[in-house]
Input
Amino acid sequence: TLGLPQCMSDLALEEFLRTYVADPFGTLLLLPTPSLVHQVRRRMALAGMAVASTSVSTLEELARQLLDVHDPGHVLLEGAEAETLLRSILMEGRDELPIFFRDGELREGFLPELLVLISTCGGYGVGNERLRDLGERGAQLSTVLERYAARAGAEAWLDGSALLRRAAQLLPSSGQRYSKVVGFGHYEPMPAH
Output
């Protein structure tokens, strides 16, 4: 199986395959994880079907492919690179950002959660003015978000939500059109999606 509830995974895959056979480059199956994408592509290959990489994808992989072709100057900022950027922003602003420090040292263990918050704010379009309305803590968080966005933008780096926003901007002029999009999995899109 595909690791999904069997009945639903079969229905989604059947719907996708029915359209894919007639229009392989105009049909898209969006799945929530790279592992599921790999499983579906493998299942299709074992059935003797040619698999277009742009036809079975995660949303993030599809966005990366779009940027690779239509805006190749950007670098995806992930994991350790994002944490390093965030850490440097916090260390440079330590006097202005006391909520992120304890006893003069950067609070450890919260950088991944702060990156999720940054991505979520970007995905839902939460602006800095809304954060400032939350008081001193919100104002400090707003400062971090502004500096993170400025530094990433200056270096042409994209985090996950910025990647999706940029891909959405490029899609209309990319020439890529899908006659059928089948999405399956536990996925709740944010406004940026």
In short: The CA atoms of residues 123 and 192 lie 5 Å apart. Residues 1-5 have pLDDT under 50 and may be disordered. The two ends are 28 Å apart (CA to CA).
